[in-house]
Specification:
0% strand
Length: 82
């Protein structure tokens, strides 16, 4: 149940759908507040590493994609504190 709640929190980020939310979650970022607390370069590296291991998607996202998501995530109310 906790994973579902955390995935729902991540899907609130503009540009993050269900598959991308699962990738973010599996990379170790379990909430919006946690996602925005890291540098975009670190997040991108962790997402590539996780995707290479688990094959979530074939989409090749970029640093600007991650920065876009972080900027919009910062506008969201924080609903979960992990």
């Amino acid at each position: 149940m906790t994973e579902l709640v955390q995935l729902c929190d991540l899907v609130r980020i503009t540009g993050v759908g269900t598959i991308f939310a699962k990738l973010i979650y599996d990379a170790g970022y379990q909430s919006v507040s946690e996602f925005i607390s890291y540098d975009s370069t670190i997040i991108l590296e962790k997402l590539y590493e996780t995707n290479n291991q688990n094959q979530h998607t074939r989409v090749k996202f970029t640093l600007s994609d991650i920065e876009y998501c972080i900027e919009y995530a910062k506008l969201l109310p924080i609903l979960l504190e992990i």
